[in-house]
Write a structure and sequence with these properties.
5-stranded antiparallel sheet; elongated
């Protein structure tokens, strides 16, 4: 075949595989051939009874017979459970036994594919238990070591759609790599419909199958749509369709077209007999294997009894580490930020870590309900100190500069470090600047409270966690390091990688790549002015920020030393201000904000230099961030996506 590798190829990344050892087992799930509910039998009979009897020649929608039945935990189910029955090709479930039994949605089939690809097991409308994406072959024999698995599609969900009329001529392999193969056009498989909800295209062979009319049994045989509506059993597509070669019935290298849908997988095998070329994949069996395994994974039952959600990294740690479960207990209801809203700062030292925890009763407009400084020493102990630092306080003059590549701690960390000789001698110099961990930051949950502890994501290494534990949420006496589980998947970029200083940072730091995504576009005009205790930043979406024009689309941000970003709601008219000798007034883009809000003067101080426009080649937009360089530092501002450009968190790195 004529093959060329495309830019959609994923970067190679070694992902740690999480291995669970399980005991005791869950309540047994019994194999059986009887239907668990008359509604299940009616649904199976409608499409598959005639296939089993040999009266029609077409592929199964469910399989020859039911296999396993049980009651599974589901928060919105009757009594917190729902009746389910597994088949080779799906799972039937009844969420509400009191609902209208004549509705086509009285029995549903579960978002099995989404769970297998994401690794998140759904136990409620908005509750998920963190496992790992399924390393189970999507099609073909399960002993085929080269066949793509559900995990192979984890980074392909956002690609597409293809255009109507375009050939399906890309292949996928087990590692998730895509390749264009023009010879596949010979199969004459074209896309015929683009689904507007998930934005994926459906090939004609699958579209015809989804809208198939044929003999059905609704009390008696007749002609009708086998799926009405067409997405009744499958849900919407969540990937494009990709070719692969798998082993089928022991025969290697069989060409199969695969497309993943929310609830099912469809396959097209051109060499199959008519009526069997398009089939539902055996996702019912695959899902049961992933969920229960051979040993009946007991941590699922533990998580269910806790009645709370866990973020991915923390949940994987909690599931697989019995000691962590014992020292932390179940997570709190306030899974992300503890009581009220919160802010956590961290700074690494030569021999430990400082953690500053500030909790608010309701919002950051209120006075903090609690402020604690914790020092994590290398011997595994934790000591709590009062946080007496007053925001806006100036740093003392005449301090001994830090040696070499070390840092002088500032703000609350610096105050404790300077005033407590034991802390200073035990920790040594800082080896980083302080970074903020914001539990409200939507891209990634960075910390979580437990009744007897706290888990922090290491902002310098996203594959590591800090576990603080003691007798209560606010009394930590010990700590340990732990693995967060699989490192974040790298972005699958179709655009060239960034260049220059921040290109080097982006390419070398997996956590930066994971958080900002791929390069998208050249950045807007960036204007920056440095202050005694922070930075003011102005973004203008016109080509020239001067002269000042309040009608320009623009945003101004105040970057404080705690790693938070504040965004004013309106643009204000510039005013003239008189700074002390040796300092500067906020200039034209910033003075109006500064004068309008006196608190900014306390928090930022005066400017230490004039405003500066950042060169166009020193800035770039990414999918979820803006990166630019200034004064020997690289700044990254994080957003939800490129289009809203509403930044919520920032970090800076030395070049």
């Amino acid at each position: 075949m004529k093959t060329r590798r495309v830019h959609l190829t994923l970067l190679a990344l070694v992902v740690a595989t999480i291995t669970f050892s399980f005991s005791p087992p869950l309540p047994p799930v019994h194999a059986q051939t009887a239907f668990a509910d008359p509604a299940f039998e009616r649904l199976w009979t409608r499409t598959d009874q005639l296939v089993t009897a040999g009266a029609v020649s077409r592929s199964y929608y469910w399989g020859p017979a039911p296999s396993y039945t049980t009651s599974e935990d589901y928060a919105q189910g009757a009594g917190g459970q729902r009746l389910v029955q597994y088949f080779d090709k799906g799972r039937m479930e009844i969420n509400n036994p009191q609902a209208d039994k004549s509705s086509p949605f009285y029995v549903t089939s579960g978002l099995l594919t989404e769970e297998l690809v994401s690794g998140k097991l759904q136990v409620g409308d908005s509750r998920f238990l963190p496992l790992a994406p399924a390393g189970i072959a999507v099609a073909g024999d399960q002993d085929d070591a080269l066949a793509p698995t559900y995990q192979s599609f984890h980074n392909l969900l956002k690609l597409g759609p293809h255009q109507v009329g375009q050939f399906a001529d890309y292949t996928v392999d087990r590692s998730g790599h895509l390749a264009f193969e023009q010879d596949l056009d010979g199969y004459q498989v074209r896309y015929t419909y683009v689904e507007s909800t998930t934005h994926h295209a459906i090939p004609t062979v699958f579209w015809n199958f989804l809208n198939l009319k044929g003999e059905v049994v609704d009390g008696k045989p007749g002609i009708g749509l086998l799926a009405d509506p067409w997405f009744l059993y499958t849900g919407y597509p969540i990937t494009e369709a990709y070719w692969t070669k798998v082993k089928v019935g022991g025969k290697p290298e069989v060409a199969v077209l695969i497309q993943l849908y929310q609830r099912r997988v469809l396959t097209y095998t051109p060499t199959n007999a008519d009526g069997w070329k398009v089939e539902m994949g055996n996702i019912g069996g695959h899902y049961y294997q992933w969920r229960y395994g051979a040993d009946k994974a007991h941590p699922l039952a533990l998580l269910t009894r806790c009645g709370s959600d866990l973020p991915e990294g923390f949940g994987r740690l909690w599931v697989r580490d019995e000691q962590v479960r014992q020292v932390l207990s179940c997570p709190t209801d306030e899974a992300t930020q503890g009581p009220g809203e919160g802010r956590i700062l961290t700074e690494k030292f030569e021999h430990g870590l400082m953690v500053d925890i500030v909790l608010y009763p309701s919002s950051r407009n209120a006075q903090p309900a609690a402020k604690y400084l914790y020092v994590l020493f290398d011997d595994g102990t934790v000591t709590r100190y009062p946080d007496n630092f007053v925001d806006g306080s100036s740093e003392p003059q005449g301090q001994t500069p830090a040696p070499g590549s070390r840092y002088l701690p500032r703000y609350g960390f610096g105050k404790l470090w300077r005033e407590n000789g034991e802390v200073r001698s035990s920790l040594g110099w800082a080896i980083s600047e302080e970074l903020g961990l914001d539990g409200l930051y939507e891209y990634r949950t960075t910390y979580q409270f437990f009744p007897k502890g706290l888990v922090l994501l290491d902002p310098f290494d996203l594959t590591k966690l800090y576990v603080l534990y003691g007798s209560s949420t606010s009394d930590f006496t010990n700590w340990r390091r732990a693995d967060a589980g699989a490192p974040p998947a790298l972005p699958n970029c179709t655009t060239p990688q960034p260049t220059g200083s921040f290109g080097q940072l982006w390419s070398s730091d997996l956590s930066v790549q994971n958080q900002v995504g791929c390069p998208v576009d050249a950045a807007a005009q960036v204007i920056i002015q440095h202050f005694q205790y922070g930075v003011m930043l102005h973004l203008s979406y016109t080509n020239n920020p001067w002269p000042y024009n309040s009608s320009d689309p623009q945003q101004t941000y105040f970057l404080f030393g705690d790693g938070q970003t504040m965004t004013p709601y309106t643009v204000t008219t510039p005013v003239t201000l008189n700074p002390p000798p040796g300092l500067y007034a906020p200039s034209v883009h910033f003075s109006g904000y500064y004068a309008h809000d006196p608190e900014l003067g306390t928090m930022l101080g005066w400017a230490t230099g004039p405003e500066v426009a950042i060169r166009a080649d020193d800035q770039s937009y990414f999918e979820t961030g803006l990166m630019f360089r200034d004064g020997g530092r690289i700044y990254i501002m994080f957003s939800d996506n490129f289009y809203d450009k509403s930044y919520k968190l920032w970090l800076s790195f030395a070049e």
